[in-house]
Amino acid sequence: SKDGFAHYMLKEIHEQPTAVANTIAGRLYNDQVCKYFIDEPIADILKKVKNIHIIACGTSYHAGLVARYWLEAITQIPTQVEIASEYRYRKPVVPDDTLFLTISQSGETADSLAALRFAKTAGYLSTFAVCNVANSSLDRETDVCFLTHAGPEIGVASTKALTTQLTVLALLTLKLAEIKGVDPAVRTNLAKQLRTLPGIINQSLMLNDQIEVIARQIVRRDHALFLGRGVHYPIALEGALKLKEISYIHAEGYPAGELKHGPLALVDENMPVIAVCPNDELLEKLESNIEEVRARGGELYAFVDHKSKHGLANRVNHLIELEASGSFTSPIVFNVPLQLLSYHVAVLRGTDVDQPRNLAKSVTVE
Ligand code: F6R
């Protein structure tokens, strides 16, 4: 049942604090990743990993893109991320000691399963998966499966599944950081950010009414551009995917530094530009990208935190301020208001939010 929510999607967005808490429960203790989550045999595989290949589709692919930023920055393990339907039909090179990692909510996505079946013949160290459905084909066929504890996701647009995938990938990054001997103070900080994540997501949900106000402006547009940099670039991609998928407004996500290489030509007073602007080491770069949009009259909507807002307040038309999280969990937190934005735009447009046209929840054909 929808528990009094108008749509499953809205219910599932609101379940995220609990879903994250459930996904972490029993897996983190005293700032260490528990053996119950990653036991000795799995840890032995992880000790050998020299490369990681992440393969997925759609929103799950975006989870993989975020994980690459984490894995390379924190553990220095070279990581590649690829869309399953591309990966399965080329001839990928598999260096020694490479780990294959599939991400899938349903565990039944045809292209992701085909990629896994290929990987099993391609000399990988092992095949790991992040999946929300126990006993799915993916769970049964992969060597190791880490389950997300999101509970059933009914809305076609993936929300809590992505958030819990990122939570599992963050735990895996933390485990690899332990194995690689990353500074314990750094690891403690990452673990703390994970533990406070449910509460911070809860705060983001309270922005609902403010987000509905800006949705009323975007609903009249035919296009939208989402911008982010660094680990928030995949969040811009995800924001654009959600908007196009459920509201049928054409949207694109771009790394903000790419604006002047083409998309800036699209920017005028009819183009809403939605920017993900946390206070991180790329903020100054992002501010100058935002200035490029402003100079062309683009309508700017910035998602900020209490530190990044100062430099942006007089540059953008609309500011939405989130509770500041640490830089590790920040992409998870900033994704939440973008989900709400797509949701409200779709509701105002009168589309079938839970069952968008032409789409299926589980893509079991290629
Ligand atoms: C978008 C969405 C899809 C899925 C994709 C992969 O909101 O839901 O892009 O993420 O079809 O599905 P899974 O994760 O089941 O492999």
TrEMBL record:
It catalyses: D-fructose 6-phosphate + L-glutamine = D-glucosamine 6-phosphate + L-glutamate. It comes from the Bacteria. Residues 42-182, 214-356 form the SIS domain. Its EC number is 2.6.1.16. Keywords: Aminotransferase, Cytoplasm, Glutamine amidotransferase, Repeat, Transferase. GO terms for molecular function: glutamine-fructose-6-phosphate transaminase (isomerizing) activity. It is found in: Cytoplasm. Catalyzes the first step in hexosamine metabolism, converting fructose-6P into glucosamine-6P using glutamine as a nitrogen source. Homodimer. This is Glutamine--fructose-6-phosphate aminotransferase [isomerizing]. It comes from Marinicella sediminis. The lineage of its organism: Bacteria, Pseudomonadati, Pseudomonadota, Gammaproteobacteria, Lysobacterales. The chain holds residues 245 to 610 of 610 of the full protein.
